[in-house]
Design goal:
The protein is mainly α. About 50% of the residues lie in helices and about 0% in strands. A hairpin with an 8-residue loop joins β1 and β2. The longest helix is centred in the N-terminal third of the chain and has 21 residues. It starts with a helix and ends with a helix. Bound molecules: protoporphyrin IX containing FE (HEM).
């Protein structure tokens, strides 16, 4: 019985639609027999005069019920290995779309890495940091997520076009942005669900995180270490993750945007090297609390740090790792890659996550993406 079902289950309309086969036209043909039989076409003149039969909804409903029932029975009896099913989206195409955005606006690449981090942090703490776009739910700690609108709108258009969940898109875009900036290829698995996020959104105003989130500017290093410890990261992991601050900028947007390193579009260990080589102090002008680097070289390159970050190179729990990662880039990259993957998988159940398998019918999927892009949002 099982062998029989295993053989024929893929022919079930549901299974076929997963595989991207043209189920609809097939079903329509079958169903149309129930609406007006074609016997008139093939039989004598008497039948030819017959009027077409009226629609037989009962036939259609019966067919649907039968399909559902078969699906339910097969689902119970046949064990489907989801990890072997191909995905409906093409990573290479998402990467191409992102690259177009990044080539046009390079600042979106670091912003995308940050967005992925914020998504992971929200999932780990069980709070809404980034609401799904189009739903005006209140956010937790809005000061931490200032300026995420632009990368979020890119994520939204990718989600709509490529038939991929919002959570998978945010995390994948972060991973691809690291690669775009010259960083390592990070192991990424798909299968994140958006329902969890939507449900949380409903109770967002009421939900409190496992541990309170300090302000990004006035919070202390100890407070941030405690947040990361609560979600399963050691001080070494925390320092390794912060290496991503080597790319992108700081919140101050005065005459020149401050950055933490001299080359804000290169993903390397310069964050640690700059931290060790530079002294920081509160600025003489209003930077909204961001510290600036001391000395001619630091001011020439508009270097700055968040106040608690400036202490990373002297704090007993973090200083050894700043030194280690500054002197050994390979060691940092290995640690960063591992921790970033862990962060991006936060909040997802292990049995939902699986390796990406490209769809077998690339051209069909591409045609659907083009059609989705042409539709108004
Ligand atoms: C300790 C927790 C962290 C805090 C409080 C924090 C805070 C901030 C702030 C305030 C900014 C400036 C945003 C702006 O331009 O307005 C920023 C930028 C950034 N953060 Fe973090 N961050 C933290 C951890 C991380 C981690 C773990 C990552 C990645 C693994 C990350 C990635 C980034 C990136 C790439 C940028 C540059 C974004 C851009 O230029 O648009 N951050 N972060």
């Amino acid at each position: 019985m099982h062998r029989y079902l295993r053989k024929f289950a893929p022919l079930h309309p549901f299974a076929m639609s997963i595989q991207g086969l043209p189920v609809r036209p097939l079903l329509c043909r079958v169903v149309s027999r129930g609406y007006a039989t074609s016997s008139a076409k093939y039989s004598g003149a008497k039948e030819a005069k017959q009027k077409p039969r009226p629609l037989r909804h009962s036939y259609f409903i019966g067919l649907c019920a039968l399909c559902g029932l078969t699906g339910a029975v097969v689902g119970q009896l046949v064990e489907i290995d989801h990890s072997k099913l191909p995905n409906a989206f093409i990573i290479a195409d998402i990467q191409k779309d992102l690259q177009v955005n990044f080539d046009f606006r390079p600042d979106l690449a670091p912003a995308m890495v940050r967005l992925a981090f914020l998504h992971g942090l929200g999932e780990a703490l069980g709070v809404m940091l980034l609401p799904l776009e189009g739903t005006p739910a209140p956010r937790y700690c809005p000061s931490l997520t200032v300026g995420v609108e632009e990368p979020q709108s890119v994520v939204r258009s990718l989600t709509l076009g490529h038939k991929i969940s919002h959570a998978d898109t945010v995390t994948l875009a972060g991973v691809l942005a690291v690669e775009y900036l010259g960083g390592p290829r990070i192991h990424w698995r798909c299968g994140r669900k958006d329902e969890r996020q939507r449900r949380r959104e409903k109770g967002a105003s009421a939900s409190q995180p496992k541990v309170p989130l300090p302000s990004p500017l006035t919070g202390t290093l100890d407070e941030w270490l405690a947040v990361f410890a609560a979600i399963g990261f050691t001080p070494q992991d925390f320092v390794a993750l912060l290496g991503a601050h080597g790319v992108g900028g700081l919140p101050y947007t005065g005459p020149a945007r401050l950055s933490r390193t001299k080359d804000k579009y290169r993903f390397n260990n310069s964050y640690y090297r700059t931290l060790l080589a530079t002294k920081y102090k509160p600025a003489a002008y209003d930077t909204g609390g961001v510290y600036v680097g001391v000395g001619a070289d630091a001011s020439k390159h508009n270097l700055g740090m968040l106040p608690w970050e400036a202490q990373l190179s002297t704090h007993p729990q973090t200083a050894p790792f700043v030194k280690k990662f500054a002197s050994d880039e390979a060691e940092w990259l290995a640690h960063f890659t591992q921790c970033f993957t862990k962060l991006l998988e936060m909040g997802s159940q292990e049995h939902h996550l699986r390796e990406y398998i490209p769809p077998p019918n690339l051209e069909l999927v591409r045609a659907q993406v083009i059609a989705a892009k042409q539709q108004p949002n």
